[in-house]
Amino acid sequence: MRVMGVDPGLTRCGLGAVEGRPGAPLSLLSVGVVRTPADDDIGSRLVVIEAEIERWLDEIRPDAVAVERVFAQHNVRTVMGTAQASAVAIVCAARRGLPVALHTPSEVKAAITGNGNADKKQVGTMVTRLLRLDAMPKPADAADALALAICHVWRGGVQHRLADALARARSGGAVPAGSGRTGRPGEVAAGRPDRGGSTR
After folding, report:
1. Taking the chain, what is the end-to-end CA distance rounded to the nearest angstrom?
2. What is the pTM of this model?
3. Is 119 annotated as a binding residue?
4. Residue 80's domain is classified under what CATH number?
5. Enzyme catalytic residues
6. Does the keyword DNA-binding apply (predicted)?
7. How many CB atoms lie under 10 A from the CB of residue 87?
8. Is 187 annotated to bind ligand?
9. Which of 3, 89, 114, 149 has minimal Cβ neighbours within 10 Å of its Cβ?
C-alpha cells in the first residue's frame, strides 16, 4: 500500500509518502514541506499548496491519502489556516477518486509510539527508526506527515484488505478493477523532497 501523508498548515504543510504493509518493513518514497509566506494573501497561499500537492499526487500515485484531522485550538487563526490547507488536500485527493483518511494527532502518536500523548521528538525518533533513516526528518511537519502515512498503512491496510475481499465476494471471486498497480516508480522526487533514506 502506497500512502501519502499530509500535515496541513499554511506556513508549512508537511508532505510524506511511504510504501509497505502491516507487519513488514516500510519504505520511504519522499518527504518535504510546502512553505508559503505569511504576508501573502490566503488565496495565493492555498494555490501554492494545491499545486504542490497535485504535483506530489502525479509523481507518487498513492493508493490513499492520510490527512491530519483538524482539532480545536486556542488560536482560532491557526486552526482556520490548518483547516483550509486540510480542505485543499482532501479536494485534491477526491478529485482523483483517491480514498482520504483523517487521523487525529493522538491516534497517530499512539500508532507510531504506543503513547497518544507523545511529543514531536518522540514521534520523529520513531519515524526515523521505522523508516531506517540516517537522520530525523526536519522540520517536524515533515516527520508528522510521514507518521500520518505510516499510521494509515498500519491501520488502513486492514480496512483496504477487507474492502478488496468484499469486492471479490460480490464479483464472484474476480479481482476488482484497479486493485494492484504496476510500473510505478519506487522512488520519486517531488517538490524537492529527499530521496531514498537520506533526509535534510
Report:
1. 25
2. 0.78
3. no
4. 3.30.420.10
5. 7, 68, 141
6. yes
7. 14
8. no
9. 114
